[in-house]
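Incident log, structure service

09:12 report received: a user says their structure output differs between two submissions of the same chain.
09:20 pulled the input from the user's history:
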Amino acid sequence: MALPSNMLPASAGRAVPPPSGRRGAPLSDTPPVGCSTRPRLRARRSIVVQVGDARASDRDARALACSLSELGIDVRYLGVLESAASIAESAVDVHADAVEICLAGGRGVALLRQLLRELDRVGLRHVSIVVHRVD
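09:34 re-ran on a clean worker, output below:
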């Protein structure tokens, strides 16, 4: 039994008709009425900050920012910041999902407590804080 001409493969020299939806209606990019689509997720946003000893090199913080960027994370490297308020304000400006802190030297626990308070004050309590110890 021979195939109808509209079902022949494209290699047979005939054009293949476009796929059609229910009752022969052409398919479109929009979903059918009543169907929900999953929204496209945006890339995670992180800020990388070096905190602590001003004499320490920021090489490790820059390497962290580069590694996160290669993983597809939207990274903003802010350099050396010393106050929790400035870190929290930067997180607000960038709409950050995470704050990556490269901690050099002491004073880490006190700064982290202040940062938690500041993030809560500006309404970003959901932001993750990740601490990286660098020497």
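09:41 both user submissions now match this output. Likely a transient worker issue. Closing.
09:42 reviewer note: The radius of gyration is 26 Å. The chain has a mean pLDDT of 78.
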